[in-house]
């Protein structure tokens, strides 16, 4: 069965109820997410998997999977409690991921890393939200993604890799400035554009200096989609000192 991948940044400022007039500065990102949403609508997934750096995390090597009857969340932490979200959890699929080495955690609150992409993509299917395992190697995330693909081989699955790129692009960036941060972002965007796992892995030693948060979720998507997938980088920008990228990844031949 076909699968679809989306790489999505997750800055709350792109939500109109939060960003207000500042959203004009990230219009490229918003337009790209709307275009990605049209791909999601056409794809019509049975289930949506989303990996977020800000979901429940574990210090071990088992990827945490949030399990609940229904995921709920709002943007109250960002001044917009009226913007709420509810999604059914695909509990059977969440527990099935234990077969790929995941750890099921009973937790239903949604984080902004999940909610921001979903605000625009609205897949209309049950979700499974996954977080980071901080002791798992990058190659471990790739293996987890590949195993997940095999687990869902007879399903129409959307995989959203949520994450921002460098947080150090400008002198007033949230994590401070680093002169090589922009280069990291451009190399990562190039790796995604070429759908080259080798190029992605070359950036492993530069992650800390960049202050990124999307490297592992993208690595997992590489494993999930496989080496023959085709990617379309819809946008990249960093007007506030953080790199925002949006990409659609499809199986070869689609």
Give your account of this protein's structure.
The chain is an alpha/beta fold. The protein has a single domain (3-165, 213-250), classed as Protocatechuate 4,5-dioxygenase, Chain B (3-Layer(aba) Sandwich), CATH 3.40.830. The chain contains 9 helices and 10 strands. It has helices spanning 16-19, 27-43, 91-96, 112-121, 138-151, 181-193, 197-201, 207-210, 215-225; strands at 3-8, 47-51, 64-67, 70-75, 80-88, 103-106, 127-130, 157-162, 230-237, 244-250. The strands form 2 sheets. An 8-stranded mixed sheet has the order 6-3-7-2-8-1-10-9, sandwiched between helices. Helix 5 (138-151) packs across helix 9 (215-225). It is globular. It starts with a strand and ends with a strand.
Short structural description:
By secondary structure, this protein is α/β, with parallel strands linked by helices. The protein is built from nine helices and ten strands. The chain has one domain: LigB-like (Protocatechuate 4,5-dioxygenase, Chain B).
Number of helices: 9
Domain tally: 1
Identify the CATH homologous superfamily.
Answer: LigB-like
Determine the N-to-C terminus distance. 12 Å
Strand order of the largest sheet: 6-3-7-2-8-1-10-9
Supply the helix-strand structural class. alpha/beta
Unreliable stretches (pLDDT < 50, length at least 5) are none
CATH class (first level) name: Alpha Beta
Query: What helical percentage do the residues reach?
Result: 25-40%
Beta-strand residue percentage: 15-25%
Q: Could you name the CATH topology? A: Protocatechuate 4,5-dioxygenase, Chain B
Alpha carbon gyration radius: 17 Å
Total number of strands: 10
Instruction: Please tell me the overall pLDDT.
Output: 97
Report on the biggest sheet. 8 strands, mixed
């Amino acid at each position: 069965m076909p699968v679809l991948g989306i790489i999505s940044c997750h800055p709350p400022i792109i939500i109109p109820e939060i960003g207000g007039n500042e959203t004009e500065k990230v219009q490229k990102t918003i337009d790209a997410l709307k275009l990605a949403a049209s791909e999601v609508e056409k794809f019509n997934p049975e289930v949506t998997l989303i990996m977020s750096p800000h979901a429940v995390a574990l210090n071990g090597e088992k990827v945490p999977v949030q399990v609940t009857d229904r995921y709920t969340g709002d943007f109250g932490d960002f001044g917009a409690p009226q913007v709420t979200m509810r999604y059914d959890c695909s509990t059977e699929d969440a527990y099935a991921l234990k077969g790929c080495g995941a750890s099921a955690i009973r937790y239903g609150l949604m984080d902004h890393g999940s909610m921001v992409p979903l605000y625009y993509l609205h897949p209309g299917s049950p979700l499974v939200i996954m977080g980071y395992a901080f002791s798992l190697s990058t190659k471990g995330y790739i293996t987890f993604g590949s195993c997940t693909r095999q687990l869902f081989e007879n399903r129409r699955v959307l995989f959203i890799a949520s994450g921002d790129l460098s947080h150090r692009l400008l002198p007033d960036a949230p994590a401070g400035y680093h002169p090589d941060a922009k280069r990291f972002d451009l190399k990562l965007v190039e790796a995604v554009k070429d759908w080259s796992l080798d190029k992605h892995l070359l950036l492993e030693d530069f992650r800390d200096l960049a202050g990124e948060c999307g490297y592992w979720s993208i690595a997992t998507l590489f494993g999930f989609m496989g080496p023959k997938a085709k990617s379309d980088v819809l946008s990249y920008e960093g007007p506030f000192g953080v790199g925002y990228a949006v990409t659609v990844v499809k199986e070869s031949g689609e």
